[in-house]
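Retro notes, structure queue

What went well: the backlog is down to a handful. What didn't: a couple of records were mislabeled last round, so from now on we paste the full input next to the output in the thread. Example, using Acyl esterase from Microbacterium binotii:
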Amino acid sequence: MARTSVLSTRVLLVCAAIGVATGILGGIAGWATVPLLGFVPPLYGLLLGVHVLPGIIAQEVLRRPGVALLAHLLAALVSSATAPQYALQFLGTAVLFGGIQEVVAAATRYRSWRAWRFFVSALVIGVVIAAAVFFAAGLKTLPLWAQIAYLAISVLAPVAWTAVGLWVGIGLRRAGVVRGGR
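Corresponding output:
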């Protein structure tokens, strides 16, 4: 019996479609970064949380190893075409977020696809980005209430975007994106 490759044409095409759609959102988020940090810095975490979408949707739809990282990298390329000034940040975010999502999935040996597993990766990502951006963007100069708001939003935003990603992924599965074999 012929063994199906993890990177079959179907997997590549689904990851590419997810990467393009979420990459456009990432590019828009890139363009909104400077104005948002300039006017309402505590909301930046909400904007950054959109970058969890490629991996969440790909893992929910395909349920295979490597698809989160692949979808993230493809989304980063599309985001980079949309907002080229952030190309390195998009690629770094893709590796970080996709890597965290893959590690959490690998911890369950790619056998558990329940919602809790996706939310664990979202919380890990939220804590990592909250800490990183807090220091990198100099948010410690903000009033205490704004620092607390930023940290809370940054930790919870990936959780909220994960819920959106699961909803989209479930819809795609119901629409038959993986029909006819995986």
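Agreed that this is the format going forward. Reviewer comment attached to the example: DSSP finds seven helices and no strands in the chain.
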